[in-house]
Specification:
Blueprint: H1 2-9, H2 13-47, H3 55-87, H4 94-106, H5 111-127
């Protein structure tokens, strides 16, 4: 009975997919901002004559870009956590499979998509 309660409280793959889409969009935005800050920092450091990779370069780069890099890393980690949660759920419909495919592609595990398709085919076959 407790397992049934937990199953009904857990979000569906569709709900996780909607959350994934929102987090992915936010991550892409944060990552683009971070890339722009890094590019501007590198340009500024080069114009100032600071040697690439030097101690001074590292200190200044960290001071200028550290917060943005940490923010992008945190957004990616949150997205990876959700991707793993999605990966652990079996698909029971084509909509679920689509959610899993997007997560698998983000997580760079496309080989697992075939396993998800086979699982869905098995589930569908046992229903008929």
């Amino acid at each position: 009975m407790e397992a049934l309660k937990l199953a009904t409280l857990a979000p569906s793959l569709t709900e996780l997919g909607m959350e994934f889409d929102v987090l992915l969009q936010a991550y892409r935005h944060i990552s683009a901002q971070c890339d722009a800050v890094i590019a501007e920092s590198e340009k500024t450091l080069a114009l100032a004559g600071v040697n690439y990779g030097s101690h001074d370069w590292s200190n200044r780069r960290f001071a200028e870009c550290g917060a943005d890099i940490r923010k992008a890393n945190a957004a990616r980690a949150e997205l990876e956590d959700l991707t793993h949660e999605i990966a652990n759920r079996p698909p029971s419909s084509l909509a679920d499979l689509l959610v899993k495919v997007k997560a698998r592609l983000f997580d760079a595990t496309p080989d697992e998509i075939l396993i998800d398709i086979l699982h869905l085919m098995t589930v569908t076959a046992t229903r008929t």
